[in-house]
Design a protein that fits this description.
- Helices cover 19% and strands 45% of the residues.
- It is built from two helices and 13 strands; from the N terminus they run H-E-E-E-E-E-E-H-E-E-E-E-E-E-E.
- Keywords: Membrane, Transmembrane, Transmembrane helix.
- Its main location: membrane.
- It is a single-pass membrane protein.
- InterPro entries: LEA_2 (IPR004864), NDR1-like (IPR044839).
């Protein structure tokens, strides 16, 4: 006689389910960064830099195509030196007048000269300053300015500088520097830019005039421009 199956108490839930195995991730890796987080970050930064460079380059190209900017040109066209000698107290007496031209060759860019300070220097030491009248310079325009410097200034010359002065005195032609300290703004159509502070340096060889005549003729000198924005 067959044995009877044991009676099962309660509900029957089917065959046993094996325990869930814990997943294992290697250190330094995550499921959402298959290519490596460091590499992905560098790639993102590289793409951003390339985008910025291309955008700036495109804007610069468009600006050049629209406005065709050209550098402003500065020249000292005439210099009249009627006094330049040392007193017994090492004060340098001077009387100098300069004429200079500023040429704006641009067709679509105007320039506001909000401040113009002209300085003269000898042996690297400043003699005097002259503040010129501010003005606006239109398109393709040449403006002529005049500056005058007269007085006395204590100038301490070393042995080398004293030798140079004696040589210049013998020839009647002196090496004098003029510098312009500017504050300018540009006008592009109806837009005015922020103010920048370029500097202009003019190295001059100025003949000493005596009784209306000069030891040599002054030659027009082109000036160098430093367009640094912030100082």
């Amino acid at each position: 006689m067959a044995e009877k199956q044991a009676h099962l108490n309660g509900a029957y839930y089917g065959p046993a389910v094996p325990p869930k195995q814990n997943s294992y991730l290697r250190p330094g890796r995550s499921r959402g960064c298959a290519c490596g987080c460091g590499f992905c970050l560098l790639k993102l930064i590289f793409n951003i830099v390339i985008t910025v460079v291309l955008t700036v380059g495109l804007l610069a190209l468009l600006f050049w195509l629209i406005f065709r900017p050209n550098l402003v040109k500065f020249h000292v066209t005439n210099a009249e030196l009627t006094q330049f000698n040392f007193t017994t107290t090492n004060n340098l007496s001077y009387n100098l007048k300069l004429n200079l031209t500023i040429r704006n060759p641009n067709r679509r860019i105007g320039i506001y000269y909000d401040q113009i300070e002209a300085r003269v220097l000898y042996g690297g030491q400043r003699l005097a300053s002259d503040y010129l009248t501010p003005f606006y310079q239109g398109h393709k325009n040449t403006t002529t300015l005049s500056a005058a410097f007269q007085g006395q200034q204590l100038v301490a010359l070393g042995t080398s500088e004293q030798s140079d002065f004696n040589s210049e005195k013998a020839t009647g032609v002196y090496d004098i520097d003029m510098k312009l300290y500017l504050r300018v703004r540009f006008k592009l159509g109806k837009i005015k830019t922020f103010r920048i502070k370029p500097r202009v340096k003019c190295g001059l060889k100025v003949p000493l005039s005596s009784l209306g005549s000069a030891a040599a003729t002054f030659q027009t000198e082109k000036c160098d421009i430093d367009w640094r924005i912030f100082r």
